[in-house]
Design a protein that fits this description.
heterodimer, A: 288 residues, mainly alpha, MetI-like fold, 14 helices, 0% strand, flat, B: 357 residues, 2 domains, three-stranded antiparallel β-sheet, 3 strands, 63% helix, globular, transmembrane helix (chain B)
Chain lengths: 288, 357
């Protein structure tokens, strides 16, 4: 085998693997998408069809009533609003508080730094389930409504993460900028506010996005805190417990439609900010 | 540096640092440390949520109920002459029922599983078989998913690290499973795993001539765990791949050029260069994923409900369904301790990394 054919063979092999990988990653999502375009009768066809087809004629047909049903479903619409309120508030709060901590950890010299770094790192691995019982009791005793309690408690996983990632971004900024500002007579807080913060805007977008995705997808706390408050339920809770109003059957068509609607914004964000997300995720997890 | 101005500045800097860190620590104290303390305290009581009965201190009772296990040998059934009875249909020795050998005092033990060893039959009993089973299932789930995700994630990472047209698009595509909310992906897979040919997998197996087309993936105990593992592998391999990709990009490319000149093949390059240099990254990724897998909740709760528990979903049901606050606190503490051990390993492996650099 000449070098050239060998190289060509490698190329073909690479593309085979890439194709398999792409299908593997995307197929479940494709399946959900076509299932959301099937009626009850089309969903019940055996064997199942790879395109939405009419049960009688086998013709390709698209059924849009699932989406209509989803967009007229009050519980689902309320869940979108709830999820948006919770996720946006969590993101802004953890960015604000986390950037303070990130700046201190990344740029300031103070006693006890290694200790605090380790505490924050340990917190990024803190298991939510371990405090579920305690948080639930605390929130019920204090009578905090479900939405504020979700906003506060989601900080358990977003805040250490944002603080940690922003620390590594702050650390990479050249110290000279910071020092020259000091020489010019800026107070440390002014330096932080007027120089560091604008410089870290890209990092803020990245970490904010990751915090947003985390909060948008959170299920354990949402399920627990809204167990007696249906009006406060977020999208994951609604989708996981989709009510079948008209039949005993699980309404998979509508569930898939709801699932697609609630994933699409995230997938769009991921595609737009792909590079930054990869950088943020890996900075949070791997960089020591 | 001994000038008054400099040390004044240092003092100001230190004060600012404490002020900037204060909000983070207050929040974490409020939502992590305080609840954890109350969970530890509650785990020693018989607290029932929203109940009027007074809470009593019960010491280690909850832990004893959660963790008590015993192994007893089951004697074979014997006829009047004392010979073991052989089951006529299967040709195997018939055994007494497990209930007869499991202790009832101080608490009743129930069967978790039976197994044979050196020709003897044993029963594993526990005072809370559901919890022991959830621990076992979670551990099996963790080991299997982390292993598969490491292998597949490595393949994915090597591919998206290679140079080809459309690499950026591929890197975006592998983020899709990660971005889809677990609640959604669990429902997606639950639908694909339907127990008849309305489900994708049963249809494909049926086309391929495997199975009857009616495999009850989610209700048959032998298929439940493999199904969970498959869903999690799909969902989380991308994350593993990203961690490994970050490690791959730290490896300088000129060492590969040197290896190419030396005539080392790609497999040899992978095992003798890439893998050793990725050791730190792999260690971190492994423990990071292990921690995540050990606390799995969404997937089990949504797809299997109360048919089969993970450690986390068991704790959730004890709290919300049974309102056993003391008891669920104890299982929270057990999970916390198990996870902490892994977290310490994680910190250690991180420490090793930063020393090397």
């Amino acid at each position: 085998m000449s070098v050239k054919t060998k190289r060509r063979l490698n190329r073909v092999l690479l593309w085979v693997v890439i194709t398999v990988m792409g299908i593997w990653m995307l197929f479940p999502f494709y399946w959900a998408a076509i299932s959301s375009l099937k009626s009850e009768a089309m969903l019940a066809m055996t064997p199942t069809t790879f395109l939405p087809r009419d049960p009688a004629t086998q013709q390709f047909t698209i059924y849009t009533r699932n989406y209509q049903a989803v967009f007229t479903n009050q519980a689902f619409l309320r869940a979108i609003v709830n999820s948006a309120i919770v996720a946006i508030s969590v993101t802004l709060l953890s960015l604000a508080i986390g950037s303070f901590a990130g700046f201190a950890l990344g740029k300031l010299r103070y006693r006890g730094k290694t200790g605090t770094l380790y505490v924050i790192l340990a917190m990024t691995m803190f298991p939510a389930i371990a405090v579920l019982t305690g948080l639930y009791a605390m929130i019920t005793n204090l009578g905090i409504p479900p939405i504020p309690s979700m906003i506060i408690t989601y900080m358990l996983f977003t805040l250490p993460f944002t603080a940690w990632v922003l620390t590594s971004f702050f650390r990479e900024l050249p110290t000279e900028i910071f020092q020259s500002a000091q020489v010019d007579g800026a107070s440390p807080f002014q330096t932080f506010y007027m120089i560091m913060l604008p410089l870290t805007a890209p990092a803020m977008v990245t970490t904010g996005l990751l915090a947003f995705i985390g909060a948008w997808n959170e299920y354990l706390f949402a399920l627990t805190f809204t167990s007696v408050a249906p009006n406060a339920r977020t999208l994951p809770v609604i989708i996981a417990n989709f009510p079948s109003q008209f039949s005993m059957q699980i309404p998979f068509g509508e569930i898939m439609a709801a699932g697609i609607v609630s994933s699409l914004p995230l997938i769009a964000l991921v595609f737009i900010f792909q590079r930054r997300i990869v950088a943020g995720l890996t900075a949070g997890a791997v960089k020591g | 540096m001994a000038q008054g101005g400099a040390s004044d500045l240092a003092k100001r800097e230190q004060r600012l640092a404490y002020w900037l860190l204060a909000p983070t620590f207050i929040v974490l104290l409020l939502i992590a440390i305080y609840p954890l303390m109350s969970v530890v305290y509650n785990s020693f009581t018989n607290a029932v949520f929203a109940s009027t009965t007074p809470t009593e201190f019960v010491g280690f009772q909850n832990y004893r109920t959660l963790l008590s296990v015993t192994v007893k040998s089951i004697p074979p059934k014997r006829d009047e002459a004392g010979n073991p009875i052989i089951d006529e249909r299967t040709g195997e020795v018939a055994y007494e029922s497990a209930v007869s050998v499991l202790p009832r005092e101080p608490q009743r033990f129930r069967q978790v599983t039976q197994f044979s060893l050196f020709g003897n039959r044993y029963v594993l009993g526990a005072t809370d078989p559901d919890f022991i089973r959830s621990v076992w299932d979670t551990v099996v789930f963790t080991v299997a998913t982390v292993f598969l995700e490491l292998v597949l994630g490595m393949i994915v990472a090597l591919i998206v690290n290679a140079n080809f047209k459309g690499r950026g698009l591929m890197r975006a595509i592998i983020l899709v499973p990660w971005a889809v909310p677990t609640a959604v992906s669990s429902q997606m897979w639950a639908y694909m795993l339907q127990p008849n040919r309305t489900g994708f997998f049963n249809t494909v197996f049926w086309y391929l001539g495997l199975g009857s087309g009616e495999i009850p993936f989610l209700s048959d105990p032998t298929w439940q765990l493999p199904s969970m593992i498959m869903i999690d592998v799909w969902k989380t391999t991308p994350f593993m791949a990203l961690l490994l990709l970050a490690g791959l990009q730290l490896i300088p490319s000129d060492i590969y050029e040197a290896a190419n000149v030396d005539g080392a093949g790609p497999l040899r390059q992978f095992f003798q260069m890439t893998l050793p240099m990725l050791r730190g990254t792999i260690a971190v990724a492994l423990v990071f994923r292990t921690l995540d897998a050990l606390r799995v909740f969404d997937l089990f709760q949504i797809v299997l409900g109360q048919a089969r528990y993970s450690m986390a979903s068991y704790t959730y049901y004890q709290l919300i369904q049974n309102r056993q606050m003391g008891y669920s606190s104890a299982s929270s503490v057990v999970i916390f301790l198990v996870l902490s051990i892994f977290a310490i390993i994680y910190m250690r492996s991180l420490g090793v990394r930063s020393d090397e650099r």
